[in-house]
Design the sequence.
């Protein structure tokens, strides 16, 4: 009797569990399919965009009028950005795909430079034509590979979820067709010779590189670096300093250092190998109260810089969060603010002590410069600012432009409606150097 | 009781209810001029309830048109300068004791509740000082970063490295920002964070944990330019990294559990 009830219940439970399991399974399948479809969409979009992109590049080669050229190249610029976006939505971050991304970026930058920034109505010059043709050839090749892969994906029902799985298990050699296809694309782009883009594009690419030759001094030993830190922070003998050389992936050869204070606080620093110049310093002390205001703290920041031999004393920006004041401070030479040599200083608002310095720009750029004399007056430069902008402040300044070149410029700070803009106009030829919207 | 009584009682109750509903604002309106002005000097960049009061008062007499948000930005700066110009003060955009006193005198009928400068949040610390980095946006390498992107960054930092020491968290925020200017990565912060396979915290949902104040601070420091990773664009945990490729990247340094590389 009892056993019969139990068995009935058991069967019932089994049926319920089975039904539940089946529903769970279906739901999971639906979700997987949804994710898979998103990848598929990005992949097929990428193929489409590449196809259109090489069409447009081809068109721009076929014409000789500036008008059609601008149309085609502006379209290429947009399509290259779209293609980059598509790649960003695919699970390719676990494999080397950077050459392909760089290639797409080059197409975008080049077509933007030539179509939008090119002055006048000139058609392409010989070198630009050569570069464009090479870009066309390579993108056509890439598009061909992508198209083949696309055909295989559709024909054999290849799934991106499998590709993603294959990428996360790289211990063994994968035989996933999608992954192999993308590897092949990257390989063929890698084997290409570097393209000639001209000085503008090279500048754009190298603008974030630093010049080690700008540094003074000889290569420092860890011992010298430690000594430098001890004087910089005014450490006591019982504060411990650990200096370690950074690996070869570094932007510039450098040391990392950790200071363990006797009272348990810690500070972290980075120093250049050449000359042991401190490029950043950060103390991790928690600041939880305020007794100074931002104005008082700014004076202690400037004072601190002076004491430590920095020639920067002009506060250009103030920010605050978590009871610290953060100041962007620049040197002034011949009446011009030298933005290229900016130092950022963080001051704790409880005791006015400096708890952080970021001075990479200063270390790599600061020197006594031979500033050119402005060739146009402030009034002449103001003509290049929109008449809708009400100019409130003007300064002479030295700024680094998009291509990493230092330019002497008039800086107009003005308002339009309720927003504030900063407009840099070259003091030599009235060229617009840059515009910023300020908060 | 008769029906009449019941109707009367309901009416009385309703009047009472209405009165209690309206009472609090009436009480407040009759209150004193509750100044929250502190003695600290306010400059561009200051934040707090005293900045709210400054904005409220400048709005009251027509010098300021923006939002009363407690953040001393450019809008407030120009308003202060216009005020200083009109009242014959030194025009420096800095609110010291002279400007403050003049402003209080010039805005006698000022009511903090009408102009939105009332201290709604009581948790703000130390008499008008501080105030978290809740609403303010920032700019990184000439690009403006919205408050919501900063929150996403804090989420990513917390999800990826909440067990790490502070410097390691700043380094992770810096890696995400370094990718912003790198052609190999998407060029928006959400694009970088949600790139499939880029961050484990995104894949396993830990990014949706509520970040603590320290993660937010790390993001702020990274945006201001501190980069303890020395220009890294990748990092991995050597104990759990399965990808062989990531080991092959040129390494820079190790901070806590993470190796940073290029």
Sequence:
């Amino acid at each position: 009797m009892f056993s019969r009830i139990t068995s009935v219940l058991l069967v019932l439970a089994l049926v319920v569990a089975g039904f539940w399991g089946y529903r769970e399974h279906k739901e999971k399948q639906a979700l997987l399919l949804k994710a898979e479809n998103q990848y598929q969409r990005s992949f097929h979009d990428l193929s489409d965009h590449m196809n259109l992109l090489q069409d447009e590049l081809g068109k721009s080669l076929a014409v000789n009028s500036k008008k059609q050229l601008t149309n085609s190249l502006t379209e290429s610029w947009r399509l290259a950005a779209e293609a980059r976006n598509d790649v960003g939505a695919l699970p390719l971050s676990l494999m080397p795909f950077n050459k392909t991304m760089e290639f797409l970026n080059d197409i975008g930058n080049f077509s933007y430079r030539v179509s939008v920034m090119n002055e006048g109505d000139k058609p392409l010059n010989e070198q630009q034509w050569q570069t464009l043709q090479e870009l066309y050839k390579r993108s056509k090749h890439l598009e061909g590979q992508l198209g083949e892969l696309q055909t295989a994906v559709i024909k054999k029902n290849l799934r991106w979820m499998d590709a993603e799985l294959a990428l996360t298990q790289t211990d063994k050699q994968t035989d996933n067709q999608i992954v192999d296809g993308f590897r092949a694309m990257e390989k063929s782009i890698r084997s290409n010779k570097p393209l000639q883009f001209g000085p503008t594009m090279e500048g754009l690419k190298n603008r974030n590189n630093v010049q080690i030759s700008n540094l003074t001094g000889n290569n420092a030993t860890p011992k010298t670096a430690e000594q430098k830190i001890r004087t910089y922070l005014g450490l006591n003998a019982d504060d411990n300093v650990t200096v370690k050389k950074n690996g070869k992936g570094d932007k510039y050869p450098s040391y990392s250092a950790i200071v363990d204070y006797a009272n348990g606080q810690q500070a972290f620093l980075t120093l250049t190998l050449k000359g042991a110049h401190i490029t950043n310093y950060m103390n991790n002390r928690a600041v939880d109260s305020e007794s100074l205001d931002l104005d008082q703290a700014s004076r202690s920041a400037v004072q601190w810089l002076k004491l430590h031999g920095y020639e920067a004393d002009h506060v250009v920006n103030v920010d605050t969060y978590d009871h610290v004041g953060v100041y962007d401070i620049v040197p002034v030479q011949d009446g011009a603010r030298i933005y290229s040599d900016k130092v950022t200083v963080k001051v704790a608002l409880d005791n006015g002590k400096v708890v952080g310095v970021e001075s990479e720009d200063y270390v790599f750029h600061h020197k006594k410069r031979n500033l050119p004399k402005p060739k146009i007056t402030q009034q002449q430069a103001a003509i290049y600012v929109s008449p809708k902008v009400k100019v409130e402040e003007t300064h002479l300044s030295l700024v680094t432009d998009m291509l990493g070149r230092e330019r002497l410029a008039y800086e107009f700070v003005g308002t339009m409606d309720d927003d504030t803009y900063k407009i840099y106009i070259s003091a030599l030829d009235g060229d617009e150097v840059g515009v910023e919207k300020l908060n | 009781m008769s029906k009449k009584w019941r109707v009367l009682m309901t009416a009385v109750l309703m009047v009472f209810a209405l009165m209690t509903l309206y009472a609090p604002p009436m009480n407040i309106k009759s209150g004193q001029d509750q100044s929250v002005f502190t003695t600290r000097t306010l400059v561009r960049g200051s934040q707090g309830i005293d900045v709210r009061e400054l904005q409220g008062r400048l709005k009251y007499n027509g010098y300021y048109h923006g939002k009363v948000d407690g953040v001393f930005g450019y809008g407030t700066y120009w308003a202060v300068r216009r005020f200083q110009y009109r009242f014959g003060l030194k025009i420096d955009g800095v609110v010291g004791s002279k400007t403050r006193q003049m402003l209080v005198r010039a805005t006698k009928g000022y009511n903090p509740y009408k102009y939105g400068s009332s201290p709604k949040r009581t948790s703000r610390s130390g008499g008008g000082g501080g105030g978290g980095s809740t609403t303010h946006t920032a700019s990184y390498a000439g690009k403006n970063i919205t408050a919501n992107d900063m929150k996403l960054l804090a989420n990513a930092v917390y999800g990826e490295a909440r067990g790490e020491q502070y410097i390691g968290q700043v380094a992770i925020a810096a890696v995400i920002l370094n990718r912003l200017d790198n052609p190999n990565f998407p060029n928006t912060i959400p694009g970088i964070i949600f790139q499939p396979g880029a961050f484990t915290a995104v894949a396993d949902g830990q990014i949706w944990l509520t970040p603590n104040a320290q993660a937010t601070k790390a993001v702020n420091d990274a945006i201001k330019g501190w980069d303890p990773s020395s220009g890294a664009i990748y990092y991995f945990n050597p104990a759990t990294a399965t990808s062989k490729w990531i080991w092959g990247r040129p390494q820079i340094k190790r901070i806590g559990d993470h190796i940073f590389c290029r």
